[in-house]
Amino acid sequence: MIKRALKNINLLHSFECAARHQSYSKAAAELCISQAAVSQQMRQLEENLTIQLFLRKGKSMLLTQQGKTLLSGTQQAFKVLEESINKITVEEIAGSLTISSTQAFTTLWLMPKLSKFSALYPDINIRVMSSPQFEDLKEQHIDLAIRFGPRVKENTDTSLNCEYFGEDPVYPVCSAALAKSINFKAPKDLLKTWLVSLDNPGCYDWPSWFEYTNTQGYQNHQQWTEVHSTDMALNAVLNGHGFTLAARYLIIEQLKSGQLVMPVNIPHPNVVKRYFVYDENSAKIARLNIFIQWLTQEMNSTN
């Protein structure tokens, strides 16, 4: 019975995926096969073992106690296999990497600097995805996610490495032209103009900044503009449309050039924490380490 179960390791690979997701459809998406194929493989594995591994409950496939035991064993076994293969093979640096991050970071920071990386490492091809969500790296075939905020660790799969690599303050900024036309000296002076906010600002919101600066009357302010992402907010502000709140790493070049200014130089009470999220047992780990080291050095040199 054990030999029959181990004869086709692909069944165990499919089982680990289906059990981890508790869904045949999600497993099918990650494995790039049909849901029917996953279902057939699980029936075959159960027949080989002569035990039931799953119980259907609605759209979810719950594990039996035997299924839970097998999941733990397969995950440990695959991890040992990955580590062993990595030790005995020499990875080629040349190849591809899929990077995911927020639209603001990819548009304002990564893409303008990507030519520097490509000049240093022309054999590494970078594919960039932007999303505000905490994607499933395995299902979406993402090698590295660059994530920001206070709840990254708790929203990251425990099987992945979540590596903190610094933090940045958030400031209210406006265009140099607007700062010349209106005398902004105190936090309350920002209420003289438009305030640009994200429609989902999280903990980096205007009310928290005004409360932190003991500004009265901001609740009655009428000139608000809501946008979907920070790059949209900064585009509006660069063209003279009031103030927005932005992390310093996103606006460092515009501050240096004088396009953006901080006439009221008081940071938001909440800082932006930065994290790399990746599988440390990835077959692309050497390539990943090169990109991570380059990005960290670039952020430290510009900040």
TrEMBL record:
Q: Which Pfam families match?
A: HTH_1 (PF00126), LysR_substrate (PF03466)
Give the InterPro entries listed for this entry.
LysR-type_TF_proteobact-type, LysR_HTH_N, LysR_subst-bd, WH-like_DNA-bd_sf, WH_DNA-bd_sf
List the Gene Ontology MF annotations in alphabetical order.
DNA-binding transcription factor activity; sequence-specific DNA binding
Key words, A-Z: DNA-binding, Transcription, Transcription regulation
Instruction: Please give a single GO biological process term from the UniProt record.
Output: DNA-templated transcription
HTH lysR-type domain segment(s): 8-64
Q: Enumerate the transmembrane spans.
A: none
Give the family this protein belongs to, as stated in its UniProt record.
Answer: Belongs to the LysR transcriptional regulatory family.
The name under which this protein is listed is: LysR family transcriptional regulator
Protein source organism: Colwellia psychrerythraea (Vibrio psychroerythus)
